[in-house]
Amino acid sequence: MEHRTTKYMNPYLAGFLLGLVLLGSIFITGRGLGASGAIKDTIVSVVSGIAPEHAAESPYYGPLIADQEHSPMKSWLVFELIGVLIGAFVSGLISDRLGFRSEGGPRIQNKTRWMFAVMGGALFAIGAQFARGCTSGAALSGMAVLSTAGFVTMLAIFGTGYLVAFFFRRLWI
Question: Does 147 have pLDDT greater than 80?
Answer without folding.
Answer: yes
